[in-house]
Amino acid sequence: MAAEKEKVIKWEGSLGIEQAETLKEELLNAFKESKNILLNLSNVEDVDTTTIQLIFSARKEAEKQGINFGIDEKIPPVAANLLKLLNLPLIKASKAPTKKTSGEE
Q1: pLDDT at site 3
Q2: Cα separation of 79 and 48, whole Å?
Q3: Considering the domain boundaries, does residue 77 fall inside one?
Q4: Angle at CA of residue 68, ends 71 and 20, nearest 5°
Q5: What is the pLDDT of residues 2-25, one digit of tens each?
Q6: What is the DSSP letter of 39?
Q7: 74 in any annotated domain
Q8: Which structural domain, as residue segments, surrounds residue 12?
Q9: 25-31 — which CB contacts under 8 Å span 24+ positions?
Q10: CATH number of the domain residue 11 falls in
Q11: Is residue 86 predicted with pLDDT exceeding 80?
């Protein structure tokens, strides 16, 4: 069986509480479409804690549903700094993690 295609979600611009519902819907739709999701934040100019909470919640929900969820390595400083300030772990991946096959450690 072929591996499922990775769904890339690209967010751009200034992301705050005003965009939270739209961003949440985009994540929920992606969860329905794929088991491999990559969030690209490379063109994000500004984020607030609402957006960070949404990403953190998406990560937890992905774990519950068995979905591979990662953030592209190109995290803008504004997002990286906010994650650090809030003492949240950076969720970085060049691609969504994949399950190990037998024989791998």
Answers
A1: 59
A2: 8
A3: yes
A4: 55
A5: 557 889 999 999 999 999 999 999
A6: E
A7: yes
A8: 7-85
A9: 27/54, 27/58, 31/61, 31/62, 31/65, 31/67
A10: 3.30.750.24
A11: no
34 occurs within a structural domain: yes
The reported pTM is 0.73
User: Are 55 and 82 spatial neighbours (Cβ–Cβ below 8 Å)?
Assistant: no
Sheet bearing 68-71, strands edge to edge: 7-15, 36-47, 68-71
pLDDT band at 82 (very low <50, low <70, confident <90, very high): confident
Residue in this structure with the two tokens 């990662």, named with its chain if needed = 70
Written as one letter, the residue type at 19 is Q
Neighbouring CB atoms inside 10 A of 24's CB total: 14
Q: What pLDDT sits at residue 75?
A: 79
